[in-house]
């Protein structure tokens, strides 16, 4: 997978915090965590010395437990906790975390002609330009330039030193640091790695015409993502030409690029 080839899951940012840091945010020093487990505080609250002492995912995998080893005789099955196995699991984790933010933290500059609905975290040195509309909870890192006339929504997180250009829409996505999305582009239900550059008019498709859940290739196996909305997974350093169109569920591996007007119908691998 493009994202996992560049960094370990434990280092991947969710809401601009490394995945492993979220275990500490749970505030349970008495709990051991599976390194790839996304654990919600609500699920974790069920664990106690009187039992249950182990939290299991929907497929029965131990996610968190008291003591040195999980006790599979004293368990609670999680509602909003799961193992991160595929990149789209990271989108789900980001949805849950960013969606749970209850307070604004605005350290950057928000223009008076920008509109913010929901809760936001905006880092130092970031400028939100006129005409920007932020709807729903959104996390934006430091030293970013957003706008003018952008629409950002749906539990999106954007890393540090990013540029989101004029009239760009970002929906329910994760953008890592030093990534640029050129003007007149759409990114939905997707992950963009570091130092990605989307040329003007690059559009991700995220919905099947028949409304069914998306499937995508993992190795030689076609896997059902379980997601009705799913865009693309883009590795570090990918560049797209202007007016690139990307089919749902496609993966652009690190260092690849597209030509102007290209339609990405299959996963894009680097040349041998």
From TrEMBL:
This is Hmannose-1-phosphateguanyl transferase. The keyword Acyltransferase applies. GO terms for molecular function: transferase activity. Residues 134-241 form the Mannose-1-phosphate guanyltransferase C-terminal domain. Residues 253-272 are annotated as: Disordered. PANTHER family: N-ACETYLMURAMATE ALPHA-1-PHOSPHATE URIDYLYLTRANSFERASE (PTHR43584:SF8), NUCLEOTIDYL TRANSFERASE (PTHR43584). CDD domains: LbH_G1P_TT_C_like (cd05636). The keyword Cell cycle does not apply. Keywords: Acyltransferase, Transferase. Coiled coil: none annotated.
């Amino acid at each position: 997978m493009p994202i996992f080839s560049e960094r370990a899951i434990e280092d991947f940012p969710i809401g601009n915090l490394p995945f492993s840091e979220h275990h500490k945010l749970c505030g349970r020093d008495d709990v051991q965590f599976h390194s790839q487990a996304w654990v919600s505080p609500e699920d974790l609250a069920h664990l106690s010395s009187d039992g249950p002492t182990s939290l299991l995912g929907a497929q029965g995998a131990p996610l968190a437990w008291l003591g040195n080893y999980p006790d599979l005789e004293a368990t609670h099955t999680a509602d909003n906790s799961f193992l991160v196995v595929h990149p789209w699991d990271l989108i789900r984790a980001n949805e849950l975390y960013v969606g749970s933010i209850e307070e604004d933290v605005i350290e950057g500059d928000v223009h008076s002609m920008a509109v913010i609905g929901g809760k936001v975290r905006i880092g130092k040195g970031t400028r939100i330009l006129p005409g920007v509309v932020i709807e729903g909870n959104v996390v934006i890192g430091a030293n970013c330039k957003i706008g003018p006339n952008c629409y950002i929504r749906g539990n999106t997180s954007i890393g540090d030193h990013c540029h989101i250009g004029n009239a760009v829409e970002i929906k329910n996505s994760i953008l890592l640091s030093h990534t640029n999305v050129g003007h007149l582009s759409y990114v939905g239900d997707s992950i963009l790695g570091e130092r990605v550059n989307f040329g003007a008019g690059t559009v991700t498709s995220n919905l099947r015409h028949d409304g069914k859940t998306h499937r995508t290739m993992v190795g030689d196996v076609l896997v059902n993502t379980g997601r009705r909305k799913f865009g693309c997974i883009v590795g570090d350093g990918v560049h797209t030409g202007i007016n690139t169109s990307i089919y749902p569920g496609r993966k652009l591996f690190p260092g690849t690029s597209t030509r102007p007007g290209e339609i990405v119908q299959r996963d894009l691998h680097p040349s041998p």
